[in-house]
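Students often ask what a 'structure token' actually looks like in practice. Rather than answer in the abstract, let us consider Tudor domain-containing protein, a protein of 247 residues. Its sequence is given first.
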Amino acid sequence: MAPTTVAAIAPAAASPGGMQPPGMYPAYLQLASMTPPAVVPPAILPDGNTFCVCLSVVFNPSDFYGQIVEKANPTVKVLEDLQQNLNKFGSQSEAPVEEMVTKGSFWICRFQGDKNWYRAQVLDVLPGPTCQRFRVLYVDYGNRSTVLCSFLRPLPPELASLPACAHRMSLAYVGPKQGNKWDESAIGVFVKETGFNISLIAEKKGHRRAGFEDITEVVLWNRNGPTAVNINVVLVEQDVAVLKSAE
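Now compare that with the structural description of the same chain:
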């Protein structure tokens, strides 16, 4: 799954999700209803006040995701091995019926961008005139999509044990210049300063909960050059963000 600045959108031409797919026999439904749903543990931050991170998805400076970069936590290798198994199970298993898919549940979900299968959590169930759609979060990267049931597959327990690899973050102390919405110029500066292929230092400054996710408020530093760069400050200096007033 390539790093991105936008959420993936499921194609409108995907097959209806409410119908029982070929090969999905009643025995499968009975087995699925008896099997406890798999649960992916939440992402775990390292101890201490700082951690190394490489951004994977950016929506705006208040809503972005990254993966931990640590010698003791080889995320890339772990995800490569996991990916092989997810693609295998995703291509060999059948889609569930809509009634089995509930808010908060975990599945293997196809990503429209690269056609691979990833671990995902259902954030919301959206009713429709002919079938339901499901808002999902790809828990190891941070992409979000709205998909049909035909994009989902059961997540085997052995592939659910690894904690989610994507950490949701928000820049501390800074906010949009006007209102609550970041403009494109601010997002552009943020992406330019952070990139998707460099290791950044995230300094923990706060924590909050939104829906099913924990959000860590951070100050981001780029220390790859001769001088450390405080990315939060850069946004203010380039006049695309303002300092938040003390609450």
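One point worth highlighting: DSSP finds four helices and 13 strands in the chain. Ask yourself how you might have guessed this from the sequence alone, and why that guess would often be unreliable.
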